[in-house]
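Hi, here's the filled form for the chain we discussed.

Project: internal
Contact: R.S.
Residues: 171
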Amino acid sequence: MPDSPTRPPCRAAALVALFALASSAPLAGELRILAPAALVAIPAIALLLYTSFDRRQQAERSVAQSAERLAGLKAAHQERFVEGTRQLLIAVSQSRDVREGDSEGCSAYLRQLLPQFGGTYRNLGVLDRQGMLICSGSTRVATDLSDRSYFRRALETRAFAVGEYIVGRQT
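And the returned structure, exactly as it came back:
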């Protein structure tokens, strides 16, 4: 027979309510024991989080500083390389074969010079005032380079000029 609203709850329902009341009492005691531990752990966890965040920021700053330092070293190396190339070209321009316009002698000189730089330069060449290649360490084909920006800039300024990265006509 189902329980009616006027009848008291059945015995099973009363036992469930009593069990719930009895099991919640020890839980309150456990919370009282764990509360001090939680109060100690929360600041420790906060300190751990703060420390890890701070270390991450330090690591990021260190990486940025290392990148800046490396970029500065690479820029200095590039400047030294360009200056060395400028000095090499001055020396080449002072050679007898270049000054006298001896195309064969100049090409032989440049072919002999190239291996001494261990692959640093793929080719060395001399252009006339019209931009025609008159001698070269590796190319034997007459090549017109008058359209290159470095050639035009060197003619205009009458000074050493560096060009941009290009893909050669023969590659």
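Let me know if anything looks off before we file it.
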